[in-house]
Amino acid sequence: MFELKPGLTGTASLTVADQHTANSVGSGTAGVLATPVMINLIEAAALNAIEAHLPETSQSLGIYLEVSHVAATPVGMKAYATAELVKVDGRHLEFIVNARDEIEEIGAGSHHRIVVNVEKFGNRVTGKLKT
Q1: Which of 26, 32, 54, 97 could form a Cys-Cys staple with 58, CB 3.0–4.6 A?
Q2: What class, spelled out in words, does domain 9-129 have in CATH?
Q3: DSSP letters along the chain, please?
Q4: pTM above threshold 0.90
Q5: Looking at the annotation, which residues are catalytic?
Q6: pLDDT tens column, 42-66
């Protein structure tokens, strides 16, 4: 199995470019960091907190996310995300997450992931194509 304990943290960052904006990803018309891209950054931070601690036969998948996106980040500014593992319940992992830019907090909330066996997960996905 695996040994994950609360307290593990991870970070991720990016410099907002045109391809990261709401009007580029289809989530709005504003030329600022899109909510789906902020979510991707948050998930990357959670992955960075735990993936090195999992065996090669396992991976984690995002299953739940509840976040606010409360401030706009313009093109050219850096955005950062942090994730802290706060609860481990078997294969279920819970994180407290935060996103900010160079000026202020832009989002916060919680994120849940589940640890799966890579081979079993792949077989299940492939099985869907056969039905």
Answers
A1: 54
A2: alpha beta
A3: -----TT-EEEEEEE--GGGBHHHHTS-S-SBB-HHHHHHHHHHHHHHHHGGGS-TTEEEEEEEEEEEE-S--BTTSEEEEEEEEEEEETTEEEEEEEEEESSSEEEEEEEEEEEEEHHHHHHHHHHHHT-
A4: yes
A5: 35, 43, 69
A6: 999 999 999 999 999 999 999 999 9
